[in-house]
Specification:
single chain; MFS_trans_sf; MFS transporter; transport; transmembrane
């Protein structure tokens, strides 16, 4: 188990390093170089590659090397591509003045990262049993915050003190750790390869035909994601309205709140295996309600540093707990033969809900105010948790072992 989880940890963390750098670190560097806010806003659109990655997920489920390992063969190419994409940024030591090629490289990186995520998720679906899926998904969610800390935090510090090239080289070196892990990884033989590309693409819809899957995907997921995401979307504008500096906002939202989120991801993942998905979802829902109440002073224009930071830390920890449960149940519905496609489809819908939450929340706040939107968000989360608890009682997770567990016991590492 330690070997499998260690492999997944390395791959998930290195996957998010560049994403954290692009969305947080590079944004700060470009702004420091004089790039306009409108241009920086457009840069964020490169992240839209992630919600549409289901379009090519079936290709990874269908095609792969039998000799090097079905998904391992993809990961060798993709992880190497991530390193090369980062190294391609080296010549552009004045990114604000060379924005065109920098953005093009970032788009290529995000595409490679999104595709690598498909392959890693497929490996996780095949290697994790029902009891260990919570831990695996806790690692996945926590890894996103670790990547944000290193890529969006540490690399910016290196850039500030030593310059562009050392920061990029550090980012590439950390990402190369994942390539070493993939090289040593021995994927169990696959005996359930999808017969054709058509069959792989039919999985895009057939995944929703499983008992309770539509209720989960179109009921629980949007209620929780839109409810929690709506409150989160209000945080940064409320800080600006409370006259917080951009530097303070960046440190608090990008670094300080990542630490409790990492802990919450790991703890909730382990708790799912011990207490079950439903109970942990309820715990996350209650924590979201309480932490949203703690944010009300900020949303009312009163933002003392200590109280606001404490409220945000609690909120991000609660958001992470709910997120881990949602990912875990998505993995419950992911079939080993088409794990990359299934998990990607279900997770992509959650990403779409998050984008919708941000736009709807900000538009509603303009009309009704921040506190009213926060209260409505708590109601949505409560409905989602209630529906999710009922779902888990009626459709408990499959208890069969994941394919490859028996083979893994014979594989070193």
């Amino acid at each position: 188990m330690r070997g499998r989880l260690g492999t997944l940890t390395a791959l998930y963390v290195t996957q998010y390093l560049g994403i954290g750098f692009i969305t947080v670190g590079l944004t700060a560097i470009l702004r420091d170089g004089g790039t306009s806010l409108d241009t920086l806003a457009l840069l964020q659109f490169v992240g839209l590659v992630w919600p549409i990655k289901f379009l090519w997920a079936p290709v990874l489920d269908r095609y792969g090397s039998r000799h090097r390992g079905h998904y391992r063969s993809w990961l060798l190419v993709l992880q190497g591509g991530l390193v090369l994409a980062l190294l391609a940024l080296l010549p552009f030591d004045r990114p604000a003045a060379q924005l065109g090629p920098v953005v093009a490289i970032c788009v290529a990186y995000v595409f490679l990262s999104a595709t690598q995520d498909i392959a890693v998720d497929a490996v996780a679906v095949r290697l994790l049993s029902e009891r260990s899926r919570g831990t695996g998904n806790g690692i996945q969610v926590a890894a996103s915050y670790v990547g944000n800390l290193l890529g969006g935090g540490a690399c910016v510090v290196v850039y500030d003190r030593f310059g562009w090239a050392p920061a990029i080289l550090l980012l590439a070196a950390l990402t190369a750790v994942g390539l070493l892990v993939v090289w040593r990884f021995r994927e169990p033989d696959r005996t359930d390869r999808v017969e054709s590309a058509g069959a792989a693409y039919r999985a895009l819809l057939s995944v929703l035909g499983q008992p309770g899957c539509r209720r989960w995907t179109f009921g629980v997921v949007p209620l929780v994601y839109i409810g929690a995401g709506a409150t989160y979307a209000l945080v940064t504008p409320a800080m600006v309205d409370a006259d917080w500096s951009l530097a303070r906002i960046g440190v608090v939202t990008g670094v300080v709140t990542s630490l409790p989120a990492i802990v919450a991801g790991l703890v909730s993942g382990a708790a799912i295996g011990r207490f079950g998905r439903g109970r942990v979802l309820v715990a996350g829902g209650v924590a979201l309600a309480l932490s949203t109440a703690m944010l009300l002073p900020l949303l009312n224009g009163q933002a003392p540093l200590a109280g606001t930071v404490a409220a945000l830390c609690c909120f991000m920890a609660a958001y992470t707990i709910a997120n881990v449960v949602l990912y875990t149940v998505n993995m419950d519905y992911s079939r080993p033969g088409t794990g990359g496609t299934d998990f990607t489809v279900l997770s992509s819908f959650g990403l779409v809900c998050s984008f919708v939450a941000a736009s709807v929340a900000l538009a509603a706040a303009e009309v009704f105010g921040y506190p009213a939107v926060a209260v409505a968000s708590v109601v949505l989360v409560a409905l989602g948790v209630a529906l999710g608890l009922g779902h888990q009682r009626r459709f408990p997770p499959r208890s069969v072992a994941a394919p490859g567990e028996r083979e893994l016991s014979k594989v070193p590492g």
